[in-house]
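Input protein
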Amino acid sequence: MKETLTVVKIGGNVVDDPAALDAFVGEFSRLRGPKILVHGGGKEATRLSKRLEIPTVMIEGRRVTSRETLDVVTMVYAGLVNKRIVSKLQAAGCDALGLSGADGGAVRATMRPKEPRDYGFVGDIRPEGVNTDLIERLIDGGIVPVFCAIMHDGEGTLLNCNADSVASAIALGMARVRPVRLVYCFEQPGVMADIERPDSVIAEITPTSYATLKENGTVSGGMIPKIENALAAVASGVESVSIRMASALNDPDAGTTIRP
């Protein structure tokens, strides 16, 4: 059996904080076994959009992407943020390669339907859209793929995808060829019952408990797609999903575990 692959996702709160990013890079570089990194960068894109006087519109934690916004997020995600992370990983001795979904045809997406809400140039990914042969060749060659959230439709159009969804789709795609675990890292120690109390981490979430947490408002905003993608992943072949603080990447007992 092939060695377990770890797919790790970090968000804008880690990417935006130089000290947090440096700490994460150290943790990630020490992570043993084959690995893939998926990153967001929404705060950086929001700042640039504001400077360019392009409005930022969000629906349930997901960015509505006009053609102008697509240009901004492509520049930020696939350019500035991706190469910043790759350069730090190289400095830490981790041989990384920055990728969008278009590079090497690594990940293909389809534009999200306009109904019931029009998200613009936003894509959805199915596990079948993940080019497992390409990614396996990179991993076998000792390369760590670092994916931004810009994908392509195979017909020349770039699409902005939710980075949590990208991580989940890549994990599901790769689970077809090897064991995979998925880790979402961010600035909090896990999913908390009370955001003001770091000791209130919810150790485990199941579909039943998630429905209650969403209904009572404990889970809201950007955490909604994160948990929904995690639940979908463990229901479809990913061995485990955890949500934890980036600095605790190598702690097996940290954070919140998502179970089917």
